[in-house]
Amino acid sequence: ALPNQEFLNLNLDSSQYNAVTATDGPLLIIAGAGSGKTRVLTSRTAFLIKEQMIEPKNIMLVTFTSKSAIEMKERLIKVAGLTPQQIHSLVTGTFHSIFYKIVMHHEPYRWKSTNLLKWDYQKEKIIKEAARELTLDEKEFAFDQALQLIGYWKNTLLPPELIKPKDQWEERVLFLYRYYENRKKEYGLFDFDDMLVGCYHLFLEQPDLLKRYQERFTHFLIDEFQDINKVQYETIKLLSHTTKNLCVVGDDDQSIYAFRGSDPTFMLEFEKDYPNARIVTLSQNYRSSHMIVASANRIITRNLRRREKKMNASFNNGQAPFFFFPYNEEEEATMIVTDIKEKIKDGAAPSDFAILYRTHTASRAMFERLAQSNLPFKLEQDSDSFYNRRIVRGLLAYLHLSKDPNDTDALGHVLSSLFLKQNVMNDLKAISILEDCSMIQALEKITNIQPFQQKKLRKIVPMFSRLKSTSPITAIEMIEREMGFAEYVKKNGNEGNTIEKGSDDIRDLKVVAKKFKHVQELLDHVSHMVAMNKEMKQISKHYTDAVQLLTIHRSKGLEFKHVYIIGTVDGSIPHDFALESLRNGENEPLEEERRLLYVAMTRAEESLTISVPEMRRNKISHPSRFIKEFL
Ligand code: ATP
Ligand code: MG
């Protein structure tokens, strides 16, 4: 046995041990999934504190999610025997949480947490203010994409002055960016990106303060270094300038956040900034069975832009990945729930399972099937119900309103999907009060509006009586066709995560609608599922033993005995937009999709099931082009 191992109870192989104990100077560990990179970081932290008597408060340990920070702390207490006090003074968490804790103590960045722009819609409000000045058409302009680009600029340390817009669109976004930054400053508001950018500027502007922090932090440890972005990298470079005791671990094959400004080049070119860096590779996979490692290797080596690395399995047991070929997403969900139940009967625990998907909306059927089963399951806390998506809500509003003419909320959605402004709503309210009628009745009485608007409004009421007496699927098609809803979807595009499209939402909704004969049944189902979603998020907070539903992005760094990847068809994995780029001769987005699949596959320990539905969104789908790479 290697020295110190027993005392620290670390259980490391010799390359891992070398990585843990080489504590002087910069060190880069670059290694495949499941090779113990995270374990090395935890062990190194324990080694620094217990063997080298470094004060925990001098150590900065950066994790990719706050959850993994908690897990690391638990492991440090349980396995390495650190005391809760030691853990308490250790500076650990995500870049955002660590940097925010630093800036909030110093002028001029003493932001109050209540002034945080937490959600996209809060940011969009400011952006839309600016858009009005540019007289940009609300319907035509993709605000979510603008926000994403602004975030990208901020994370790559590009203030408005430095940006050279490539085209007219970027020129407009640049205007919005400038306005957004000024407005925020004026109101004392800040967003998540500001936590990083603010910290970087704080150090640049106040050298004395920087010096104090440089003296305080003597050791840096960073997990998932392949997904670091410019502002994070530069800030760490400033902080670690004196000691250069910087240990970073990563896997370029798992770089999956390019859209947020993450750039594996910082890791691949680490030696440029740290010429005397030691580089350690780990080549033993301790997570997955032999066949899973082999398949994952086979897939990822198809990427052209990557650093070659070895990954040997430690276990010879296990089976090759399974493939499911369900008829559609409903059957897919049923097959998986049945399979999970069977494995639980054979002794597995619910927490041994994870179900992974490319985008949030792709989990709709899975969620509903699980909600009807009695399996305990966990949702991502920020995942909203599918039925609350803007486009879906907008369409359902017609159905709600046909049942309940007093549903003003629904009326609001209907009006905005008809591109009618807020003032119509106010007029309707006034009429309904003055003439003592319902808002719907008021629709017929409104006069002081443009003729084209009046024409649209006049269509609503007769529509309702027809909607009432038809099947949900026909109703949806009528709304699309006759109320110009299809056009609204096209113009109103996506929301939040820009890769999820409004038109896909409608197709997903139609899959649900087909299951019911009457509009009321569909609406009952929807309200039940919205309530379930809320309830499950509440309940599942307290579940310790539950099946996990996760996007592949969120699954990074985690591991599960049994993993299911759902919707493995072209257009989902790889995503449509990557296929689109490929048609334009751009290969990189497709490689990022392949990395996503690699991340998903390498979460599995014992079994990996890849599900390839024949139909998706009521249409024939084609198996993911990555599937043939398994052979
Ligand atoms: P990822 O790239 O997915 O983040 P990783 O390289 O960080 O993976 P870890 O999560 O640290 O890998 O380790 C993978 C699994 O292997 C964990 O369950 C860990 O406890 C286990 N493991 C790591 N090293 C050893 C070892 N020397 N002996 C036994 N098990 C090990
Ligand atoms: Mg890890």
From TrEMBL:
One of its GO terms (cellular component) is cytosol. It is an enzyme of class 5 (isomerase). ATP binds at A31, G32, A33, G34, S35, G36, K37, T38. Its EC number is 5.6.2.4. Residues 290-557 form the UvrD-like helicase C-terminal domain. It comes from the Bacteria. GO terms for molecular function: 3'-5' DNA helicase activity; ATP binding; ATP hydrolysis activity; DNA binding. Belongs to the helicase family. UvrD subfamily. This is DNA 3'-5' helicase. It comes from Litchfieldia salsa.
